[in-house]
Amino acid sequence: MLRSLQVFGSLALLQAVASQQIWDIWQTTWDRDMLFTYFKPTDPINFVTPGAIGNADIVIHDSSVYQTVYGFGASLTDSSAELFNNLKAYRVQNSGSYWKLMHYLFNATDGANSAGFSYIRVPLGATDFSANTYSYDDTSGDTSLNNFDINAAPSDIFSVIQDILSINHMARFHILPWSPPGWMKSGGTMRGGLLNTQYINTMANYLLKSVQAFLDKGIPIYSISIQNEPENNDSTYPTCNMSVATEAQIGLALRTLLNNHGLSSVKIIGYDHNWVDAANYPVQLMQQAGSAFDGVSFHCYRGSVSDQALFTSQYPNKEVYFTECSGTLGSDWWNDIKWYTDNIFIGSISYGSSSGLMWNLALDGSGQPSLPGIDSCGGGCRGVVQINNNGTWSVNQEFYSMAQASKAILPRDAGGPWGQRIGVSIGGSLDWALVVGAYKTGRVSSSDWNRYSIVVLNWDDSASTTWNPQPVKATIEFRGMQATYTFPVGVTTLWWYAPN
Predict the structure, then answer these.
(1) Distance CA 244, CA 157 (A)
(2) Is the pTM of this model over 0.90?
(3) I need a surface site. Which of 132, 143, 187, 448 has the fewest CB within 10 A?
(4) What is the DSSP track for 329-358?
């Protein structure tokens, strides 16, 4: 009898998977024929009894469940906020343009024609993309922080955040300074230099006050970092070279302050710098102050994505985030999408990240506005969005590659869980042609079937020899059943449903 029940249960599971069909596809192709375009296939893509594998064979290992992915997005710099508010000012002449863009970027409702960006990084004070250099307390020697004022930041920042929250209440905000106030530093300037260690506790209080000030404006804070790029010492814009020991001490002090003020849920994320030093700075930070830090975050500018494993192999229970990479003006659209998808929006997630972010959320077509005299990005930084001074906007390659990934992990239900990375492997004669990320999104009701998503980069464009983009016929193996789909050169996101 038990044997019969086991066989019946196995047959029922196979029948459930076999009855599933892939109906929902989002796609961006190298030739721009499809640009984050949603469509349903002419004929349903069925999971059936397995046959011969395709030229590539995507095998889903759904019993291997890894980290939750909390979203994709970028930094809302002062420059980005200024451009968004300029666009909003055109609401009379170009009705709805601002809100159309905001919904396209941030609406995370299931089924919406939008990217659902949900992880936003917000600088505390000036960056290289501000009109001038400022902090929240520029009164020299004000160790009690009596003159702390978050309204030193442009009001544009807070109005744009409130608009984001009106569209996407699930949005997470990660705040951090590019520099402490200049009077706390060697040289007395925010542009380069070191934090004087006598101000370690003062800086921890400064960060606490920052969290509280955002909350007072109705802005929830998911996480905070101690210092952006602590190994960067650039005199052309706000930076601070901060040792591991100093960041560790600030982190320990801040953790205590947050806990004592009822803010224990606010995560502290360390490092926030390049892949290249993953085995050193963030590891030493955990050794010195692991109790204070929930995890670390990485940037793309030096090193490779595989370097993340040098950290996660030593601290597998700490969280990892990817928080910055900038587009550069004049670079190639399709080559950028390949690189971003391979290294960040599939790659960094595959190496344990719970987020994937670009740098400026918006800039104009010249990479402006910016702080005068900066040396950022060489030929100029490119935003995820280009906003023009005539009230028009367009999205760049950063948007398309990131939006494809975002669709795979957004909650299926209102108030439901975010997607989790699951195991996936690729076989077949063209296994090299595809890069794949796989995800499971749970449901609010246990009776509802989970959503299983894959994000697939087909980069078989023969670009190293003669340009000859080739679609790849692939099989998708899931719980002993098989579906077949031909992936064009580009990025494709598709999903199906199955019981847990």
Answers:
(1) 30
(2) yes
(3) 132
(4) TT--HHHHHHHHIIIIITHHHHTTEEEEEE
